[in-house]
Design a protein that fits this description.
This protein is of the alpha/beta class. The chain has one domain: Ribonucleoside hydrolase-like (Inosine-uridine Nucleoside N-ribohydrolase, Chain A), CATH 3.90.245. 40% of the residues lie in helices and 16% in strands. It is built from 15 helices and ten strands. Strands 3-2-1-4-5-6-10-7 form an eight-stranded mixed sheet, with helices on both faces. Helix 1 packs across helix 15, helix 4 crosses helix 5 and helix 5 crosses helix 8.
């Protein structure tokens, strides 16, 4: 049987790479893609997702419009990194139109797809967690119907990339992140910001990757030009990734969802999200002392097999 995935995205450059990886794996079936505000406004997320699917000739995969704004937080985006359009500001005059987006709303579609495939769906969330939070409010039994949940978000060492101590996805909708980590008691795996940084790849590999002779590689090279330039700046390396290299954050969550044997080191711990701190709002809290009394613990990824991950990236673009 193929592994059934639902992707919840805010399609920027790394979401695009993650989608390409899922599409390239013959053992994966993508039931649908739900879109959320985040890296760029929802309408652009929808356009970007369709652009990625078009490159792979997979516009048959249903795309749904989810939440356009956070539950309570102020709306924010990552235009400084991903570009104003979310895909490096390289317009495509032949991009698919929004008429291809499904009429059914994203949250309702998510609930329906999980119900129709109880116990079989792995949900991969690489966006702010608004859609997931709304879904569990509408359908409290939803987490019990999932096979697993994989999240790219949060941080494990209080190192922020958006605020002093906050990672973008959790800061972009802090209340949603809190709800998801409280209510989703299915097997949950988290690829944190610091983990992706410490497992980033040499810049020389990214050059090798994007010079693969294929339409998909050419697409990724084009849309990632801005973010690669930003990532290689001295200030960005110093402040954000501590001198590391090419980091396709969301792709780590997707890769481990496809094949969890990729994970070489992890730990299980109860987590929550700080809602009130002046400097720490949006920070993921790891309860090593077990003071929260939570029974549900998540898997925090610490390291992955980078050679296997490299091969998955190469396969995704061939």
């Amino acid at each position: 049987m193929k592994k059934k995935l639902i992707l919840d995205v805010d399609t920027g450059v790394d979401d695009a790479q993650a989608i390409l990886m899922a599409l390239a794996d013959p053992n994966v079936e993508i039931l649908g893609i739900t879109c959320c505000h985040g890296n760029t406004p929802l309408e652009k997320v929808l356009k970007n997702t369709l652009r990625v699917l078009k490159v792979c000739n997979r516009l048959d995969i249903p795309v749904y419009a989810g939440c356009s704004q956070p539950l309570l937080s102020n709306k924010r985006n990552s235009s400084d990194y991903h570009g104003n359009d979310g895909l490096g500001d390289v317009p495509d005059p032949d991009a698919p139109g929004l008429e291809l987006v499904q009429k059914k709303k994203g949250v309702q579609a998510l609930i329906k797809m999980v119900k129709q495939n109880q116990g079989e769906v792995t949900l991969v969330a690489t966006a702010p967690l608004t859609n997931l939070a709304v879904a569990v409010q509408l359908e409290p039994s939803l987490p019990k119907k999932l096979k697993a949940l994989y999240i790219m978000g949060g941080n494990i060492d209080s190192r922020g990339n958006t605020t002093t101590c906050g990672e973008f996805n959790f800061v972009a909708d802090t209340e949603a992140a809190y709800i998801v980590l409280e209510r989703y008691t299915c097997p949950t795996t988290i690829a944190s910001w610091e983990f992706t940084c410490s497992n980033s790849l040499p810049w020389s590999f990214s050059e090798q990757l994007f010079f693969i002779k294929s339409e998909k590689a050419a697409f990724m090279k084009k849309i990632s030009s801005l973010s690669r330039m930003k990532s290689q700046s001295v200030d960005y390396q110093k402040e954000i990734t501590a001198g590391k290299g090419f980091n396709s954050c969301d792709t780590y969550a997707l890769a481990t969802a496809i094949n969890d044997s990729l994970i070489t080191e992890s730990e299980n711990v109860a987590v929550t999200v700080e809602l009130l701190g002046a400097n720490t709002r949006g920070m993921m809290v790891l309860d090593y002392m077990e003071l929260l009394g939570k029974k549900h613990k998540v898997t925090i990824i610490k390291n992955v097999d980078l050679e296997m991950f490299k091969q998955m990236l190469i396969n995704s673009l061939q």
